[in-house]
Amino acid sequence: MPGRPLSRPRTSSQTFFSSNSPPPKKKKKKQALLQLEYPDKLQRLLLTPQREVLVELVITRDNGEIEVKGGGI
Q1: What pLDDT digit, counting tens, does each position of 26-61 carry?
Q2: Is residue 5 in some structural domain?
């Protein structure tokens, strides 16, 4: 449909991983760092990715509704 935006800003409910629970790999790393008793500052440094790939997929439903899926890899 002309004049209709193809995507919209992502909201927290549209991400692949809930903001309340970290991705599985990150959770395992966090548990390991806690067991090793690394300081909080070092844990944050090691858990922060150097690069992140963000993906966004715009889906147009048969009924005309537009849905945006997105998240990080």
Answers
A1: 889 899 999 999 999 999 888 887 877 888 999 999
A2: no
